[in-house]
Amino acid sequence: MNAWIEAPVAAFDTETTGVDVVADRIVTASIVTAVPGTVPISTQEWLIDPGVPIPAGAAAIHGVTTEYAQANGMDAAQGIDAVAGTLAGGIAAGVPIVVFNAAYDLPLLAAEIDRYNLPSIQERTGGISPLVIDPLVLDRAVDRYRRGKRTLETLCEVYDVDVPDALHNSTTDSAMTLLVLAAMFKRHRAALDMPLQQLQDFQRTAHAAWAKNFNQWRERQGYSGQGPSEEWLP
């Protein structure tokens, strides 16, 4: 039986107005479909006018200002509907989705869908749940004790993937995520070569263990505020 790494997947990424999954808005979204490590089969990108000011700090990261989004972006409800419809179409067809830090991007999209009273991903797929592959969760699991950051840029360096100048563009980040995933699988095949459904359970368990340990560390350091949930995806 062929490994899941040898079949097409759809990488999904967003650039946003901030880091709050409930309050912040999507500015760009991209879906890059490819067999990980190969030339993309298709690339789709949406530029959305979020309907709220884009903070200067966020614009400095992804390059989209309020003025540019207003002049060139889609209506927010129409844009979110298009993103959700495209993503749901792939899920319904059985295509796994690859999301770096899925615990951020997927709840963010769900909040946007709710904001505009649009059909949920589950409603669009007829109840089919997505098969999600999160390279961040996988990296924490297969190389637990490696020190340092685990950003996409850092993982590009760890897995010998050339870092482009245009990182923090949702399309570029989606493509880089697939290259990192391919390199990670090659290096850690013994740990990651399992049926996709089993991989879902593996990621849930791995994320819960990481979150528990991280929150214990936060407590020892005296940090206040809520840490990450042990639940990977709702």
Automatic annotation (TrEMBL):
SUPFAM superfamilies: Ribonuclease H-like. One of its GO terms (cellular component) is cytosol. NCBIfam families: PRK07942.1 (NF005927). InterPro entries: Ribonucl_H (IPR013520), RNaseH-like_sf (IPR012337), RNaseH_sf (IPR036397). Residues 8-190 form the Exonuclease domain. Keywords: Exonuclease, Hydrolase, Nuclease. The keyword Lyase does not apply. GO terms for molecular function: 3'-5' exonuclease activity; nucleic acid binding. This is DNA polymerase-3 subunit epsilon. Gene3D superfamilies: Ribonuclease H-like superfamily/Ribonuclease H. The keyword DNA repair does not apply.
